[in-house]
Write a structure and sequence with these properties.
Low-confidence stretches of chain B: 441-448
Mean pLDDT of chain A: 91
CATH superfamily of the largest domain in chain B: NADH-ubiquinone oxidoreductase 51kDa subunit
Largest sheet of chain A: 4 strands, mixed
Distance between the termini of chain A: 18 Å
Low-confidence stretches of chain A: 1-7
Structural class of chain A: alpha+beta
CATH superfamily of the largest domain in chain A: Glutaredoxin
Order of helices and strands of chain B: HHHHEHHEHEHEHHEEEEHEEHHHEHHHHH
Shape of chain A: elongated
Number of domains of chain A: 2
CATH architecture of the largest domain in chain B: 3-Layer(aba) Sandwich
CATH class of the largest domain in chain B: Alpha Beta
Oligomer: heterodimer
Number of strands of chain A: 4
Strand content of chain B: 5-15%
Distance between the termini of chain B: 22 Å
Number of helices of chain A: 7
Number of helices of chain B: 19
Number of strands of chain B: 11
Largest interface: A-B, 41 and 57 residues
Radius of gyration of chain B: 22 Å
Largest sheet of chain B: 5 strands, mixed
CATH architecture of the largest domain in chain A: 3-Layer(aba) Sandwich
Chain lengths: 187, 448
């Protein structure tokens, strides 16, 4: 069984090739146990988070089919949920997805300028991934961090008060040297 | 300096651990409620306190609790709404991140009052790091016998779980939240039936905001009557305010309801005044969906009275000259900020977040975004302003859930108070779209 998220990066061709790590599977079972008998579908969102963390930051059709199998529901029930919520990426993404807040309060403190700067520095547009596969730029709506804007999120971490070009450069440099980990492995 | 009900110990090192939290009086309300009070007595105290829902609507919490149906043999649920997504609001996140046990204590005491044996905290998926903090604290509470079977020997059982969302503003609406918690798309439900009768898993359910639930332990410990003494009139108790925008000290402040708005903006105890020595232009006092007010109407009502941080005072004058306390997200604009650009930004937000179920909201938010986009980018027509007013009017009140209203109000109010700024944008398309170019309305700016 693979131990880290990176080992699972290769996209599975069939549903049988989709293998969660032991820790990931334990996490899934734990979430399912939170709901009454017959209501296991309730755990779909946390399971999709686990899946996205394990399989390269996005949900392929094969992964979604696997989730349907685990929950004993129809694949369409997974697709319809995955397409509703903005946190789930339905196409391959870079190693680090930069989820930049673009909503009003952050813009009052320079979020627009930060997004422009990121586009220029990474030479990509919103929704695109850098040629080296390192970064995907994904503007998102308010992240409940209005007092510390401009800010952005990468996986589970908030990077706040990025109010100068120096801080932005520093942030990008840190990320370039950061390995991807699935958080529940650290417990 | 007012009384601190929610944040007294929030900066104590180690307060996120059970040991330190208990050292500072934590979980006393659980002991008191479970061992010396009946559930109905707890509900009565909350009713007496006058506590109003802190998520935005301001509906009396005790009354909401008393509506809960109690059919025999059917489980009841308490669901904590921690889906904090309203632009400008970040109080719940900061509160849970720093003091997770305070919410858990509130959940136990409140669940006991409602007769719930399983409760959920639904937290927005982006706050996964807060979910992990909460889960750690919950594990500590289980180990200490504060959760699980026969809590503190009282015979009362409670399981508490945290459930993450997936990124959807609409899931802050209580019925959309319940749909999401059941593993579905977050489409709001038609009411009735209300969640109090048919909520989570078709069972009677109460959905309360984080701050409301976290206020319950103090009410149980000190009595509802004591709580009602704090604040002014029907705005009892304290409120967490998320202050953001162009101020010197952005952050979360716990205020006694009734602090003058002017003091809140300029006092060093709170916002510390407008940053960079600039002038105040406008404030959105309760989260992006409430009406924006120009400087002259935020510190004084239309009648010239001091405006206070209360539900009543902020809404004085209705939507003609007032706004709302909402979730307490206080967004401040300095003189350089462009109201048109900000309104377009909010319209884009609501278009992005509309679930698409009701046509007026799905189509209307899209049209508002498009029209505002063209005004902001130098392609507007004078008749666009009235077009926006008309679209906003046709969304308002015509949708299943309040997201439609939330989308309409910021547009309608921006035009109501800053119409000449929209006209200027349309008349001066080139200047308006220059980087850093802003219209400075004489109407709005006042002396600090």
């Amino acid at each position: 069984m693979p131990e880290t998220a990176n080992d699972n990066y290769k996209m599975a061709e069939t549903i049988n090739e989709v293998k969660f790590s032991d820790a990931g599977m334990a996490e899934i079972q734990r979430y399912i146990s939170h709901y009454p008998e017959g209501r296991q579908k309730s755990a779909i969102l946390p399971i999709m988070h686990v899946a996205q963390a394990e399989f390269g930051g996005w949900l392929s059709p094969q992964v979604m089919d696997k989730i349907a199998e685990i929950l004993n529901i129809q694949p369409i029930e997974v697709y319809e949920v995955a397409t509703f919520y903005t946190m789930f990426n339905l196409k391959p993404v870079g190693k680090h997805v930069l989820e930049v807040c673009r909503t009003g309060p952050c813009c009052l403190r320079g979020a627009d300028q930060m997004i422009d700067m990121l586009k220029e520095k990474l030479n990509i547009q919103e929704g695109e991934t850098t040629a080296d596969g390192m970064f995907t730029l994904k503007p998102v709506e308010c992240l409940a961090s209005c007092g510390t804007g401009p800010m952005l999120q990468v996986r589970e971490k908030f990077y706040e008060n990025i109010d100068s070009e120096e801080k932005l450069d520093q942030f990008l440099e840190t990320l370039r040297n950061t390995e991807v980990e699935t958080p529940y492995h650290q417990k | 300096m007012g009384i601190k009900i929610l944040t007294e110990h929030i900066n104590v090192p180690g307060i996120e651990t059970l040991e330190v939290y208990r050292k500072h009086g934590g979980y006393r309300s659980v002991e008191k409620a479970l061992k010396t009070m009946t559930p109905d007595e707890v509900v009565e105290e909350v009713k007496t306190s006058g506590l109003r829902g802190r998520g935005g609507a301001g509906f009396p919490t005790g009354m909401k609790w008393s509506f809960l149906a109690k059919p025999e043999g059917v489980p009841r649920y308490l669901v904590c709404n921690a889906d904090e997504s309203e632009p400008g609001t970040f109080k719940d996140r900061v509160f849970m991140e720093k003091n997770p046990h305070a919410l858990i204590e509130g959940m136990i005491t409140s669940s006991y009052a409602l007769g719930a044996n399983t409760s959920y905290i639904y937290i927005r998926g982006e706050l996964m790091f807060v979910l992990r903090i909460l889960e750690k604290a919950i594990a500590e509470a289980y180990a200490a016998g504060l959760l699980g079977k026969n809590i503190l020997g009282s015979g009362y059982d409670l399981d508490l779980h945290v459930a993450p969302g997936g990124g959807a503003y609409i899931c802050g609406e209580e019925t959309a939240l319940l749909e999401s918690l059941e593993g579905k798309r977050g489409n709001p439900r038609n009411k009735p039936p209300f969640p109090a009768v048919k909520g989570l898993f078709a069972s009677p359910t109460v959905v309360n905001n984080v701050e409301s639930i976290a206020s319950v332990p103090w009410i149980v410990n000190n009595g509802g009557a004591e709580y009602a003494k704090i604040g002014i009139g029907r705005s009892t108790g304290t409120k967490l305010i998320s202050a953001s925008g162009n101020i010197n000290n952005p952050g979360v402040y716990e205020i006694e309801l009734g602090v003058p708005v002017e003091e809140f903006i300029y006092s060093d105890e709170y916002c510390g005044g407008i940053w960079k020595g600039k002038q105040l232009k406008a404030v959105v006092p309760g989260g992006s969906s409430v009406p924006i007010l120009p400087a002259n109407l935020i510190t004084k009502t239309a009648a010239g009275e001091d405006r206070l941080m209360t539900y009543e005072s902020l809404s004085d004058g209705g939507f003609v000259s007032g706004s709302m306390l909402g979730s307490g997200a206080f967004i401040v604009f300095d003189e350089d900020q462009c109201i048109v650009r900000n309104t377009w930004n909010y319209a884009r937000f609501y278009h992005h977040e509309s679930c698409g179920q009701c046509s007026p909201c799905r189509e209307g938010t899209g049209w508002m975004e498009k029209v505002l986009h063209r005004i902001e980018h130098g392609h507007g027509h004078q008749q666009d302003i009235d077009l926006l007013v008309s679209v906003a009017k046709q969304i308002e009140g015509n949708t299943i859930c309040p997201l439609g209203d939330a989308a309409a109000w910021p547009v309608a109010s921006a035009i109501r108070h800053f119409r000449e700024e929209f006209e200027w944008h349309i008349k001066h398309p080139k200047e308006a779209t220059l980087p850093g170019a802003v219209y400075r309305g004489q109407l709005a700016t006042i002396e600090a």
